[in-house]
Specification:
With 52 residues, the protein is mainly alpha-helical. The chain is 85% helix and 0% strand. The protein has a domain at 24-51. It has helices spanning 2-8, 11-38, 41-49. Helix 2 crosses helix 3 (41-49).
Length: 52
């Protein structure tokens, strides 16, 4: 792995980091929208915990 980093530099790791960050932001945004559509965070928590 170290030899690959020396040969190609840090660009692949930066790309993986950027993709991971973008996916995390997308999931967070979808969670916020989903909670709003379900009627709030408390209702979403009840559904996820099986109480709803």
């Amino acid at each position: 792995m170290y030899s690959q980093l020396r040969r190609y530099g840090w660009r692949p790791l930066q790309a993986v980091g950027h993709v991971t960050l973008a996916l995390a932001l997308l999931v967070f945004g979808l969670a916020c929208v989903g909670a709003d559509l379900l009627g709030g965070w408390e209702r979403a928590a009840q559904l996820l915990s099986g109480q709803g």
